[in-house]
Amino acid sequence: MEYEVIIGLEVHVQLNTNSKIFSTGTNEFGGSPNTHITPLCAALPGTLPVLNEAVLKKAVCAGLALGCDITKFTKFDRKNYFYPDLPKGYQISQYDKPYATKGGLFVKWKGQETEKFIPLTRIHMEEDAGKLIHSHDPGQNKSYVDYNRAGTPLIEIVSEPDIRSSEEAYAYLNELKTLLRYVQVSDCNMEEGSLRCDANVSIRPFGEKDFRTRVEIKNLNSFKAVKQAIDYEVEWQKEKYAKGETFQQMTKLWDATLLKTIPMRTKEMSHDYRYFPEPDLPAIQLTDSYIDDIRRHLPELPRAKKERYIKELGLPEYDAEVLTSEREVAEYFEKALQISKDAKKTSNWVKDEVLGIVNKENISIQEFKVSAEKIGKLVFLINSGDITGKIAKTIFEDMLTSDSSPEEIIEAKGLKVVRDDKALEEIVDRVLVGQQESVDAWKNGKDRVLGAIVGAVMKETKGKADPKMVNDLILKKIGPLGEKKKTE
Asked: Fewer CB in a 10 Å sphere around the end CB: N or C, the chain?
């Protein structure tokens, strides 16, 4: 039987505020266990939460960037469950009045010609729990609790179950990560837990309208793991149905070593958490002016920027995709373009030369040594005819190991293009004497030899001659192609 795959993703995003959501505890990653905590993080008696307004602002910013409806009246709720990493015995979250609803993302993946819109159900704010560390020492059966993450501000972005493959899920997560980094609400670093994903997976025969039993997969710490876990789970469910078996709604863990999903517990329903309004926090009433002010300060979003690069700058779709993949890369490109005035050549230098080194050295473009202004100047000098593309590569190599500008390197190494007509003509005459066979071949109609003659002149000038001038001079001296044949 052919099955349709049904996937919904719940993405937890850590907001990059200085302090936690309800306390003054630092929101910095790492640190020795239980050093980034306050009495509130540890749920000591008498402590009360106070909402960090920066959390609310960044949350609304993310919602607007995703095209959501921002709820003017919103509130917090208590989600009750008992686990050692939750000191209060409940999590402050949002239940029936999330701050954002609807919205969504356009995604495109390999093999897909057109974009697909993945709608969202909701986004809500909540606090993170602590972290359990299990001992693996022989003979020990202990777990340790680190509350450094307790109270970390999160938004949970819940998609509709409209994703139909692991490839779609992968593309959705990449697009979501790019967007959230553009609006600078999170660094989305999965290695540090800034972005975590749970996947809800079920299958049903094509044509069937009702949803079947779903499985929630947790412990997905990379986009690759999300894809692998979904693919495994789909095959597991197909096998169950093929045998005529059923299974309960459950939560599973992804084992990255065994590359399989492992049952953790039966899935709780909302009533299991005994939600009720958080009595220690007032409801939030957002005004139109508050929401509009945040909307006005949104940057140009990646999809709009990509379309502008294609339509206004005339860049190929691939170039536009690469340059808009990160906000910092787009900013670097645009700073260089302001000086170079040549979109395509600047794109080539940024995506090939600059990002080639950035990716090879596994650094961010902010850590790259050569400034965007210097790359822009390098392209400008090529277009002005002051240097050739080959010389530009030499200058670029020097800029990687010095603080010198392109002009300073040109001056110090005497790399400026030779424009002395008389001196260049003498070099061309000398080369033609040594390239008599190629000249004869040209006169006999073999056009390929022109490249060898031009190359010989460029070698003689150490790449400093203007290629167009060289080409014109040579043609002037050797005459039209096939001239000897015509004479005969």
From this structure: C
3-state secondary structure of 349: helix
Q: Are strands 143-146 and 153-159 parallel, antiparallel or unpaired?
A: unpaired
What's the Rg (C-alpha) of the chain? 31
**CA 147 to CA 33: how far, in whole Å?**
7
Place of tokens 């779709």: 317
C-beta separation of 227 from 201 below 8 A: no
Which pLDDT does position 427 carry in this prediction? 83
- 132: Cβ–Cβ under 8 A, 6 or more apart, which residues? 84, 85, 143, 144, 145, 146
Alpha-carbon gap, residue 55 to 347, rounded angstroms = 36
Q: Under DSSP, is residue 58 helix (H, G, I), strand (E, B) or coil? A: helix
Q: Which of 205, 155, 168, 268 is nearest to 3 (CA)?
A: 205
Pull the structure tokens for residue 457.
Answer: 């002149």
> Phi/psi of residue 377, each to 5°?
-65, -35
3-state class of 197 per DSSP?
strand
Euclidean distance between CA atoms 383 and 387, whole angstroms: 8
Q: Regarding beta strands 100-101 and 90-93, do their DSSP bridges make them parallel or antiparallel, or are they unpaired?
A: unpaired
pLDDT of residue 420: 58
Q: Do 232 and 260 meet the contact criterion of CB atoms below 8 Å apart?
A: yes
Distance CA 114, CA 106 (A): 10
Please tell me the distance from the alpha carbon of residue 290 to that of residue 299, in angstroms, as a whole number: 17
Angstrom distance (rounded) from CA 441 to CA 450? 9
pLDDT of amino acid 484:
61
* Whole-number Å distance between alpha carbons of 417 and 188: 47
In sequence order, which residues have a C-beta less than 8 Å from that of residue 346 and are 6 or more positions away? Answer: 333, 336, 337, 340, 375, 376, 379
Nearest one of 46, 51, 44 to 22, comparing CA atoms: 51
Pairing state between β 77-80 and 195-205: unpaired
Cα-Cα end-to-end distance for the chain? 76
- 182: helix, coil or strand? helix
| Other CB atoms within 10 Å distance of the CB of residue 178 | 18
Identify each DSSP E strand in 327-420 by its residue range.
none
Helices (H) and strands (E) counted in the chain, each on its own, are 17, 17
Q: Dihedral sign, CA of 81, 87, 88, 92?
A: negative
pLDDT recorded at residue 449: 82
d(CA 485, CA 244): 83
Crossing angle (nearest 10°) for helices 406-413 and 389-399: 110
List, for the chain, all residue ranges whose pLDDT scores fall below the cut of 70.
267-270, 418-421, 483-488
Give the torsion sign (CA, 204, 210, 213, 218): positive
